[in-house]
Amino acid sequence: MSASLYTELKNNILEEFKQVTAVLEHCALKSPKAFLKPFTIDSVRLLNTKEEDLQFLLKEQFSKLPKDVIYKLEAINVNDTNEIISSFKKAKETKHQGRAYSKFNEENVDSIKENKSQNITLYIGSSKAEGVLNRMRCHLGLGAKGTYSMHLKSWLPASENCMVRITLLELSCPINGNQTTNILELLEQVLWSKEKPLLGKRSGLL
After folding, report:
1. Strand runs labelled E in the chain
2. Can you give the pLDDT at residue 140?
3. What is the DSSP secondary structure assignment for residue 122, as one 8-state letter?
4. Helices (H), 49-125
5. Which pTM was predicted?
6. For residues 13 and 9, what is the distance between their CA atoms, to the nearest angstrom?
7. What ranges do the domains of the chain cover?
8. 205 confidence band (pLDDT: 50, 70, 90)
9. Which of 132, 70, 140 is closest to 99 using CA atoms?
10. Residue 77: exposed, middle, or buried by beta-carbon count in 10 A (0-12, 13-18, 19+)?
11. From residue 202, how far is each of 40, 83, 140, 189 by CA, in Å?
12. What tens digit of pLDDT does each residue of 16-38 get?
């Protein structure tokens, strides 16, 4: 019974992979038309601007997206990578401001420190179109304290004076009624493995 069940499941998986391969050949990742340039904000402005003003700025940028997206958050032109890392770890360990901080990826630290570009990939994620605004609010530190996210405003060192950059990518893909695999999630997983972000969990099992 178990052998026949395994064979049936294996064949189903292989057929699914064939469909995924066929669909991927005709897909592309691109910036949304409503978000052609990455959103950037310097850390001084992020830390010092009134919350209501930041809320308005984010609403302007992230509330008109028609499709689900992959998003990448980076710290650009970082002066001291160690300071960024230690500041987040302290905030997470002490549960600073009672916030639920993202997972810290110790296994990616060496790769981040070896990067000589002075840019740190902080987080790779994906979101439904209607949920992007709320995710960005939470990641920047304007959302609910109990939502797992980066909460940047609560721990980003003021001395760094770096830039925070948010890039969005949407999937252009033909519709396949028989396709059940989430192609966007597969791409997010591969991007996560490539970028090795400092924070956040890798989605899925691929």
Report:
1. 28-30, 39-42, 69-76, 120-127, 163-172
2. 98
3. E
4. 51-62, 81-94, 109-114
5. 0.91
6. 6
7. 29-195
8. low
9. 140
10. middle
11. 24, 24, 20, 6
12. 888 888 888 888 999 999 898 99
